[in-house]
Amino acid sequence: MQTPQSPEHPAVPDATAPDRDWAAASADPRYRAAVIDLLGALAYGELAAFERLAEDAKLAPGLADKAALARMAAAEFQHFEQVSEHLASIAEEPVTAMEPFVGPLDEFHRLTAPSDWLEGLVKAYVGDAIAADFYREIASRLDADTRGLVLRVLDDTGHASFAVEKVRAAIEADPRVGGRLALWARRLMGEALSQAQRVVADRDALSTMLVGGVADGFDLAEIGRMFSRITEAHTKRMAALGLSA
Amino acid sequence: MQTPQSPEHPAVPDATAPDRDWAAASADPRYRAAVIDLLGALAYGELAAFERLAEDAKLAPGLADKAALARMAAAEFQHFEQVSEHLASIAEEPVTAMEPFVGPLDEFHRLTAPSDWLEGLVKAYVGDAIAADFYREIASRLDADTRGLVLRVLDDTGHASFAVEKVRAAIEADPRVGGRLALWARRLMGEALSQAQRVVADRDALSTMLVGGVADGFDLAEIGRMFSRITEAHTKRMAALGLSA
Q: Which CDD domains does the record associate with it (chains A, B) (predicted)?
């Protein structure tokens, strides 16, 4: 349920939910279902990111770049392990929690297989940033235990600075690269939104929590506004990278 | 240099070299060159194993198996990091040390791309075991510091028991699978030996150390005997797996 921001919790300024812990919050079966969905999506997102980064490591122009991408993939796997262990600790089977998100995430990766090293880097950067924005949007509605886990696994794995540095250097060396990568980033965002909308339509409990717990069903307009905020943040990041989004 | 086994070092029963540390041993430039080669091959072997396991994770029949293979891949990457850090600590550029082994290892993996999940598991098991046999053969000729590192990164990452269990179950369910996988294991061993011979022919310092430091050049017959021992161990492992090698 959406509650007014509580001045008693200044340490978590964006907290719109009272600072309940998991034991208290999960007594509500709809909340519990929404968090299982959220963590299932996060876990499979990390596992899929591991696979994608390991695959993109093959496109690396040299061994040092290959090792850098493999390092990020291994970090994603550690995050996957943390979320899996957390699911198991609250008596949920990680595989069952992940199942509903395999289709949309695999489809996203299938439709956005990078054709070269730079496209792979832009995808790692954009994909990570969009996921982080989404989970930060939702973190304020979570109980303290779940929020702690989510913020921990969103910790930067070094993707951002590595990708930004390499992409900027490539655009500097050949400005035409910028136009191609700007189109690519636009396609990534489009496919991400289209799969996210598919998930929203399919997963009632999750969608309800996304918009702050409207009792029955959910407010599509509010979800639209959340997607707008994420798109705006993406546009700003692309501009910082030297790409017009 | 090959020395008789020293009864003063019962803790390392297979040590044929005096228990020197790296500082003392690396004063000999041929020894230093051989160890750089060995660690370069080990580092790239781990990085390539990471990529191969991450790739084979796609063949997994379900999410739990996929996660298990990804876990092994992440463990291989941690080993790669340890060897890389060790190379850096002895003032060697890991990328330079790995370069000579990229060709043979990539070629091995290109020629032995598994066509299904079970072939991938047999390859992970066989490949790991052969590499471990090889490094254990050579460990006794290493200084104490390098030996410690090598034995540490050969620590079982759980490949063996996972692969053995799955392959045995598959053969039990359909005994014809055993014939196909036995052929596959034979092919893996053949390609591994052929790439190993290529490395032996190319890398003088390494080959000299392999046979115990004959001063000039190396004894091909002794290398042949080492390969025989590794092949015999492989045959025994295949029999234990229910495959005739």
A: Ferritin_like
